[in-house]
Specification:
Helix content is 80%, strand content 0%. It has 71 residues and is an all-alpha fold.
């Protein structure tokens, strides 16, 4: 999967095409994902939704580190 995505990204860059378009045209990708699933991967609401969780984790770890350093 990594190699397929890497190849698609390089092709998109070299041809100046949108990455999503390249993935949708790739038979290796569409053999595993429906077009609607590929399009959903590019929906910011699907991946930004966990940003707050990551921020909370970083802040908690930072607070823990600061508390340990203060001792």
């Amino acid at each position: 999967a990594h190699r397929t995505v890497e190849t698609a990204a390089q092709l998109a860059l070299s041809e100046g095409r949108p990455f999503r378009e390249v993935l949708l045209a790739d038979h290796d990708v569409t053999a595993h994902l429906e077009p609607v699933e590929i399009r959903q991967l590019f929906d910011p609401m699907k991946y930004i939704g966990v940003a707050n969780e990551f921020i909370d984790r970083v802040l908690a770890a930072s607070r823990s580190w600061v508390d340990e350093e203060a001792r």
